[in-house]
């Protein structure tokens, strides 16, 4: 996930400014599609995070950028999607991987963004993936993110500030392990993450993580 806000969800949707302050689809289409660059895309991201761009407009513009033949536009679309930890961004990045040639610059950029869903602030998206109806690729990257995240942030101590965040993944991981039996690429990282969570010996009751935008 790229600057200006690494992995951060947009601001509270309950604090949206008046509609007249929001930029329209046509505004961003005319600004970005003819001549997009990192400076303009970062401005687009900041406005989205400040609720000056609606979710519908943000993802519509990203999709139009990605549909262009120019790899630079595709990369900027991935950059924008990767800047915001939301299920819509995650699904967009998974979609990029399904369309792009393995090893291409666009595919590599999308993969890099997906790896950053191991950040604690992005785990609400991983939870949504593991508890929803998603394809094998989406689930695969979700369990890889959780495997990495539990390695980095979950320590076997009751003082660990992230402990309650991980305990809610026990059930979803068990279902993934049962549902993808035989797929080592999924069940191996899922089992590692589950073992770390269960081994943390945290007794606090768990609550599902807050999902951005709800």
Strand content: under 5%
Count helical runs: 11
Helix proportion: 55-70%
Number of domains: 2
**CA distance, first residue to last residue:** 21 Å
Q: Output the radius of gyration.
A: 18 Å
Largest sheet geometry:
none
Segments where pLDDT lies below 50 for 5+ residues? Answer: 2-17, 202-208
Q: SSE string, helix = H, strand = E?
A: HHHHHHHHHHH
Number of strands: 0
Shape label: elongated
Overall residue-averaged pLDDT value: 85
Structural class: mainly alpha
Summarize this, please?
The protein has 214 residues and is mainly α.
Structure description:
- By secondary structure, the chain is mainly α.
- It folds into 2 domains: 1-117, no CATH class; 119-214, no CATH class.
- Helix content is 59%, strand content 0%.
- It has 11 helices and no strands.
- It has helices at 25-32, 38-49, 55-67, 71-82, 87-99, 105-115, 123-131, 136-153, 163-167, 170-179, 184-199.
- Helix 5 packs antiparallel against helix 6, helix 7 (123-131) crosses helix 8 and helix 10 runs antiparallel to helix 11 (184-199).
- It is elongated.
- It starts with 24 loop residues before the first helix and ends in a 15-residue tail after the last helix.
- Residues 2-17 and 202-208 have low confidence and may be disordered.
Secondary structure layout:
Layout: H1 25-32, H2 38-49, H3 55-67, H4 71-82, H5 87-99, H6 105-115, H7 123-131, H8 136-153, H9 163-167, H10 170-179, H11 184-199
Features:
single chain, 214 residues, mainly alpha, 2 domains, 11 helices, 59% helix, elongated, disordered N terminus
